[in-house]
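Supplementary Text 2. Reproducibility record for the structural model of the 278-residue chain.

All settings were left at their defaults, and a single model was retained for analysis rather than an ensemble. We include the record here because the model underlies the residue-level annotations in Supplementary Table 4.
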Amino acid sequence: MKSFNPVIISKTFINSSSIKSRILFLFILVNFNPVEAQFWNFRSNLIKIDSLESIINQDRELYKKKLNESNNLSAHQSSIIDSLLLETESMAFILDSLVLVIENMTKLDVSLISKQNSDSSIVFCPDKVMTEQVKCLQTCSCLTEEYPSKISAGGLRVIKEGYNMAVVSRTILRGSCWDFINKVYSNAGYPNARRKTIYKKKKGSTFASPELLQPGDWVYHINYSYHNVEHSAIFVCWKDYENRIAITLSYAGQNKYTPGKYGTYDLSGIYNIIRCRE
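Retained model, structure tokens:
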């Protein structure tokens, strides 16, 4: 019978543990797959790339949005600039017209008071400057028949102020025809207290005293060319004295956004005449 040897048993155990460790190491080494490890690394990188691409796409969309907003703003500003350029051109045209009028103002003042009769009354007929700017004034009978009308100093100021508002400054005064004539008279220095009525009849009566009219007179008449309505105007000159056809300055009324305008009217229906009080 063999005897029990502790030393031999201990060595055998130690040798057995060492073999197991080696076997475990070999097992891990054999089962290690570098390709699979690389796959997981590659997948992780793909996730990171997708995340970056998403961020880039968001930034790209934001940039496109801001670019579109910038383009819209630029288009709006371009439209404003175009509008300002048109207004500048319009203002340049008005300034050129004003320069022309100013250059001829002295000539206009002289020609409006064309001569004086022995009784010191002033006579009036539109001059070249006025007829070039207002074509219908070329039909005034005083230009062809030497039939100028007497005019007072106040009437002359009214004629000049009406011309300035209608042609030079093209003043817009929205309201009625009465409002426009009232403004012309006031600007000329003739408010309500400095006006007088020289003729008054019932509406619808025939105007039988054309010799009463002077340029600058404020006339109330029936507008036979527009539904026979009542109308206010400034008498400027006769076109056909015998048939009571005249050139007047008036405003269309009805709150229209237009300046005063010269036109031809039948004044056989005048029922009221107002004149400047000196």
